[in-house]
């Protein structure tokens, strides 16, 4: 969503339980994201919710949603604190960028991104070696930080850390917009 700034800090949440739970998942099982979007070819993902473009089904990966139910609720509650409308997930996933990799500059152009909010939760990585840019501005983020980003602006990641960088990425849509764009 085209928010007023490049990114807004929403809070911080300890990610140690998430890191333990992620030991139970297969990062190579689901390849839809990196296969569909060349800019994400160097990432691996674990899906929780996946909605394509406006009007498409929002698929719930029930086993993963069950495993990460606490985290999904925590992020949703934090997001709801900042916004007064009722919101729903359109996407939620864990994205892993391997050590010393990058994501080329791009912006999210699909119609859905004009009506959804993009949230990142910094789960794991060496953030002193992370260059996450939005519209040329380097994000001042650390492990455990949760922020909303303007994904309608060009953004890129250059990571020189010696361990993988993991973020939980969540997209939210207001129930009003969901009803308007999905139910017509």
Question: How would you explain this protein's 3D organization?
Answer:
With 184 residues, the protein is of the alpha+beta class. Helices cover 22% and strands 38% of the residues. The strands form two sheets. Strands 1-9-6-11-4-2-3 form a seven-stranded antiparallel sheet. A four-stranded antiparallel sheet has the order 5-10-7-8, with no helix packed on it. It starts with 6 loop residues before the first strand and ends with a helix.
Task: Put the structure in a nutshell.
It is built from five helices and eleven strands. With 184 residues, it is an alpha+beta fold.
How does the major sheet shape up?
Answer: 7 strands, antiparallel
Structural class: alpha+beta
Radius of gyration: 15 Å
Beta fraction = 35-45%
Question: Whole-Å distance between the termini?
Answer: 21 Å
Counting H and I runs of at least 4 residues, what is the number of helices? 5
Which term fits the overall shape?
globular
Average pLDDT works out at 92
Percent in helix: 10-25%
Strand order of the largest sheet: 1-9-6-11-4-2-3
Q: Return the string of H and E elements.
A: EHHEEHHEEEEEEEEH
Low-confidence stretches: none
> How many extended strands?
11
Essential attributes:
single chain; 184 residues; alpha+beta; seven-stranded antiparallel sheet; four-stranded antiparallel sheet; 11 strands
Chain-wise SSE layout:
Blueprint: E1 7-12, H1 16-22, H2 32-36, E2 43-51, E3 58-60, H3 62-67, H4 69-82, E4 87-97, E5 102-106, E6 116-124, E7 130-134, E8 137-138, E9 145-149, E10 155-159, E11 165-174, H5 175-182
């Amino acid at each position: 969503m085209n928010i007023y700034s490049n990114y807004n800090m929403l809070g911080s949440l300890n990610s140690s339980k998430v890191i333990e739970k992620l030991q139970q998942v297969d990062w190579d099982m689901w390849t839809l994201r990196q296969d569909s979007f060349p800019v994400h070819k160097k990432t691996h993902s674990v899906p929780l919710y996946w909605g394509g473009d406006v009007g498409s089904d929002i698929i719930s990966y029930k086993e993963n949603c069950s495993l990460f139910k606490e985290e999904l609720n925590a992020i949703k509650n934090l997001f709801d604190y900042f916004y007064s409308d009722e919101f729903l997930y359109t996407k939620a996933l864990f994205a892993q960028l391997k050590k010393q990799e990058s994501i080329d500059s791009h912006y999210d152009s699909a119609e859905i991104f004009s009506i959804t909010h993009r949230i990142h939760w910094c789960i794991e990585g060496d953030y002193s070696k992370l260059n996450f840019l939005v519209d040329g501005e380097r994000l001042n983020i650390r492990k455990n930080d949760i922020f909303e980003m303007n994904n309608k602006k060009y953004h890129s990641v250059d990571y020189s850390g010696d361990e993988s960088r993991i973020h939980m990425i969540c997209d939210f849509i207001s129930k009003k917009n969901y009803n308007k764009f999905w139910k017509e």
